[in-house]
Specification:
By secondary structure, this protein is an alpha/beta fold. The chain has a domain of 181 residues: Spore Coat Polysaccharide Biosynthesis Protein SpsA, Chain A, CATH 3.90.550. The strands form five sheets. Strands 1, 4, 7, 8, 10, 13, 14 and 15 form an eight-stranded mixed beta sheet that branches. Strands 2-3 form a two-stranded antiparallel ribbon. The chain has a two-stranded antiparallel sheet with strand order 5-6. The longest helix is centred in the last third of the chain and has 12 residues. The radius of gyration is 20 Å and the shape is globular.
């Protein structure tokens, strides 16, 4: 089963972390966040990927084309005779398709443009900048149980600001530094799709997956929500980046299950 990953956006809100790297290649814990997304899927048995490239896709290609050099110590003989790598890596069974889906193409158009690389009846789809401890086996089982065209994982991430509880006189009774949102669910990615999803898509540049196609899926009763109650975090801003880095530094990153 293929895992399609949207990693072609401009990432303008996180340019203060890096001007040179596309957002999926911004490192957390020494590896690009895109690698963390892929690694999470791989440890759950999904190791065939289709990367929907756009902005600075060459940086992503270079990283994986030279993967062993990027991730290992090595000795190089400058006469060109040999390169000796001093450690292997656990990603040898990954199979990655690099699909150029257009510099300015929106998410719906990007997915439509990879249809030829999706050769199974069902495929995974997610964003290249969000991590979580989603139970992928349970997600897939839920999708197969209802028979609809698409399942989206709903999340309720922590709020952006501290929450203060006070009575009518202003006496504070409690303070929650990072409250969970108390409203509805938001899309955290981690989609499961049947090939019928492509009937709702076309390759035009301005097609946003989360708008017209998903609204049509809703109207046709073909979109289901899988509720994920636990950790999920995207990396949209510098604040998000520091949060993820801090979790890794503290050894408290819930998505890192491969150590």
């Amino acid at each position: 089963m293929k895992v399609a990953i949207l990693c072609g956006g401009f990432g303008t809100r996180i340019r203060d972390v890096s001007q040179e790297l596309p957002k999926p290649m911004v490192p957390i814990g020494g590896r690009p966040i895109l690698w963390h997304v892929m690694k999470y899927y791989a440890v759950h048995g999904f190791n065939e990927f289709v990367l929907c490239l756009g902005y600075k896709g060459d940086v992503i290609k270079d990283y994986f084309l030279n993967y062993q050099a990027h991730t290992s110590d090595f000795t190089l003989s400058l006469d060109g005779s040999a390169i000796a790598y001093h450690r292997g890596h656990d990603e040898r069974d990954w199979k990655i398709t690099f699909a150029e889906t257009g510099l300015n193409t929106m998410t719906g158009g990007r997915v439509a443009r990879i249809q030829r690389y999706v050769d199974a009846d069902t495929f995974m789809l997610t964003y290249g900048d969000g991590v979580g401890d989603v139970d992928l086996a349970a997600l897939l089982a839920f999708h197969r149980s209802h028979g609809k065209a698409m399942t989206v994982t709903g999340v309720r991430p922590p709020g952006r600001f501290g929450e203060v509880d006070a009575n009518d006189d202003g006496l504070i009774g409690g303070f929650n530094e990072k409250p969970q949102t108390t409203g509805g669910w938001i899309s955290g990615g981690f989609f499961v799709c049947d090939r019928r999803v492509f009937d709702y898509l076309d390759p035009r540049e301005d097609l946003v997956l989360e708008r017209e196609p998903m609204r049509k899926l809703v109207a046709d009763g073909e979109l289901m929500l899988y509720r994920h109650q636990d950790f999920w975090q995207c990396m949209d801003t510098y604040r998000d980046y520091k949060l993820l880095e801090g979790l890794i530094d503290a050894g408290e990153a819930p998505w890192i299950t491969w150590r």
